[in-house]
Amino acid sequence: MKSIRMRLWSGMMILSAVVILLIFLFQIVFLERFYTEMEISAAGRDVAELVSEIELYGDLREAAVSPEIIEKADQISYDRNMQVQIALSDDGIIYSSQSGGDRMPGMMQSETAKALISALGGEEYRNQTVHNRFGNKIAIMGFPVMSDAGVDGAVLVSFSLASVEDTAEILKKQLVIIALVIMVVSVIISSVLSKKFTEPVRLISEAAEAYSRGELEKRLPDLGEDETGQLARRMNEMGEALTRNEMLKKELISNVSHELRTPLTIIRGYAEAMRDITGDDAEKRSRQLGVIIEQSGRLGNIVEDMLSLSKLQSGTETLRLEPFSVYDILEEIRLMYGANSEKRTFEISGEDCRGREVTGDRRKIEQVLYNFISNAFVHTSPEDSVEVRISENDGFMRIEVADSGPGISGEDIGHVFERYYKGSRDKDSVSSGTGLGLAIVKGILELHKAPYGVESEPGSGAVFWFELPFS
Q1: Comparing C-alpha atoms, which of 76, 92, 88, 9 is closest to residue 43?
Q2: How far is CA 298 from CA 290, 292, 302, 368, in A?
Q3: Nearest to 129 by CA among 147, 109, 148, 146
Q4: Through-space distance between the first and last CA atoms of the chain, rounded to whole angstroms
Q5: Cα–Cα distance between 88 and 61 in angstroms, integer?
Q6: Contact 418, 309 (CB under 8 A)
Q7: pTM for the whole thing?
Q8: What 3-state DSSP class applies to 238?
Q9: pLDDT tens digits, residue range 174-183?
Q10: How big is the chain by its Cα radius of gyration, in Å?
Q11: What pLDDT, in 10s, does the model give residues 261-288?
Q12: Which of 463, 363, 367, 457 shows the shortest CA–CA distance to 412?
């Protein structure tokens, strides 16, 4: 297949050839005919004016010797390079111009006779003939001179069209030169323009090929503000997104490996201890079994998070919408945390909304609240508090989970809901998780088409929020 560059170059060369052909048609084929018609029409108008002035005299013989008519006829003869003759019906030609065109050669007298006969018959005569000897075209016209009694005579004119033929011949020679110049210029311009237009496409194609090979660091230069420039910027953005995604995947592998290895190691260690050391000590065995159960639950939570995110991203997850109380969910989460070993709790504010319900998928919103609150506990010391604030906002219930942790940097705040992303405050945390919790929250809230976000400044804690419509 031909490249785009070659097709573009070929198209421009074809366009140049068509332009040259059109120039040939209009400047050579049609020009001669058009120019001839213009010359004959202009000459006819001048002779018609002369005939009108002759007819004003009333007597053709008197007009033929009038200085004004002779001057007019000679002026036309000179300006148009033609021979002008005045003929009477009975006496034949009584005047013939002395300047301007050559007299009609004898061999052309038959054409003049035809013009005279036609004009004396009251019909205007116009014809082109070819000189028998020299081969050039000659125009012959005859105009009747009318009076009250009828046709008194005629005005005959004849002139050579050699100037039109010479002009066309000159243009033919010029056209050859013009065609060569146009072809050379077209080759140069076509090559430059085809390269200019296709070079960005080539660069973008190379970048896409590099991305397919996993070379995600390749970036395109600024290619302007047109469509190719916009496409290049989109490609660079895609490259940055792919690079970030690759880093996140590497972090996922590292994080998941660590998160899975830790509970598995603990489970294995305690299981071996029970087998080899504990023996019949029921208290130790019970404590060790508790650790195994706890770490198994942690391992299950990691797998559950990965499965939940996979369902949300694949689009197979559906919503079961129903009215429910956010406060009931919060109380259940409070009881759950109060029952574990850490015995963490949080404050709830916003009594004005306590009796009102919202519409959504209760189970999934419970997961959102649990993830937000768990995230707040992770980044808040046991001595500090976590607060859940509930308020009304233009027909929506706004739920905010505020912690008093280290806050989120401006660099990280735009990425906290991305899967596997772990910002600086996560890396400083003791229990950082897999980085899937907030990505799951994002998927659930976007499935609900619910507004959500985070507000934070370094050193001032963070507030995660979302809104649901009242029932």
Answers
A1: 76
A2: 12, 10, 6, 18
A3: 109
A4: 62
A5: 7
A6: no
A7: 0.45
A8: helix
A9: 877 887 888 8
A10: 51
A11: 767 777 777 677 766 665 567 777 777 7
A12: 457
